[in-house]
Write a structure and sequence with these properties.
With 254 residues, this protein is of the alpha/beta class. It contains 8 helices and 7 strands, in the order βαβαβαβαβαβαααβ. Bound molecules: NADPH dihydro-nicotinamide-adenine-dinucleotide phosphate.
């Protein structure tokens, strides 16, 4: 009988939605690996909180837009897990890390597009590829997209298009990984009050009001609205949910 805890890897788990996901997943009795880009201190705090809850947790530095760093990250993580659990494997991968770009089509530069492409598509593709041998059969992948693939707000053409690409990639992954019973789903949050995009949803009152006014539940989203849904996708109860895009937006722009 399997007694080992399941393990989830969440990219960008130091702040915002990723932090909330990490805590919600730990609450389900799942051990957690998070990555951070620059904020080691914030990542260490998340790890401390999870250890206090009685789950194992560790943080690794990773730039998910730098494909060249993936081999050494995967090897470092696998070596650590092997030592702790006699297995280098994880059960769930949450591709969450990301940065914002608000730029109208007329002003977008090639460099800006490359940066969004690397972090929101190419990095997700190749990190997933490198990790596939280390995801246990029967596990799952959750890719974080955005409400902006369905609804259109000026300035998000590149970001929204590349999140759409991740949604399509997720359906291909679900098909190709079905024989390993690995489920692949997309969570598409509406506008959520985090540091994202300089804290625009949280700190820009005009934009916050605008989003609240077009949201059926009458406010912008909070990290707590998202983490539990991702955690649910890391449980046996959600096993039959596969290849789905689940929008979590309080009914934004319906
Ligand atoms: P935050 O800005 O609050 O947090 C971003 C996280 O990503 C941090 O943990 C940060 O690490 C990490 N990160 C940033 N750049 C890199 C990088 N180059 N490599 C690896 N990690 C990196 O953003 P949110 O939590 O709001 O967003 C998380 C995800 O949710 C993103 O994919 C975003 O596109 C998506 N999303 C967000 C929405 C929103 O309104 N907030 C709406 C819809 C989708 P560090 O702390 O070290 O900087």
């Amino acid at each position: 009988m399997e007694t080992r805890n399941k393990i989830a890897l969440i990219t960008g788990g130091s702040r915002g939605l990723g932090k909330n996901m990490a805590l919600a997943i730990a609450k389900k009795g799942i051990d957690v690996v998070i990555t951070y880009h620059a904020n080691k201190e914030a990542a260490d705090e998340v790890v401390e909180q999870i250890l206090t809850m009685g789950q194992n947790a560790i943080a690794f530095q990773l730039d998910t837009s730098n494909m060249k760093s993936f081999d050494s990250f995967v090897s470092e993580m696998a070596t650590h897990l092997e030592k702790e659990n006699n297995s280098p494997n994880i059960d769930y991968l949450i591709n969450n890390a990301g940065t914002a770009l608000y730029a109208p089509v007329t002003d977008t530069t090639e460099e800006q597009m490359d940066a969004v492409f690397n972090i929101h598509y190419k990095g997700v593709f190749f990190l997933t590829q490198k990790l596939l041998p280390f995801i246990n059969d029967g596990g799952g992948i959750v890719n974080i997209s955005s409400g902006l693939t369905r609804l259109v707000m000026p300035g998000s053409a590149v970001y929204g298009s590349l999140k759409s690409a991740v949604e399509t990639l997720s359906r291909y992954l679900a098909k190709e990984l079905g024989s390993r019973r690995i489920r692949v789903n997309v969570i598409a949050p509406g506008a959520i009050a985090t540091d994202f995009g300089g804290g625009r949803v949280r700190d820009n009152k005009e934009f916050n009001d605008q989003v609240a006014n077009i949201t059926a539940l009458g406010r912008v989203g909070l990290p707590d609205d998202i983490g539990g849904v991702v955690a649910f996708l890391c449980t046996a109860e959600s096993f039959w949910i596969n290849a789905q895009r689940i929008e979590v937006s309080g009914g934004q722009a319906i």
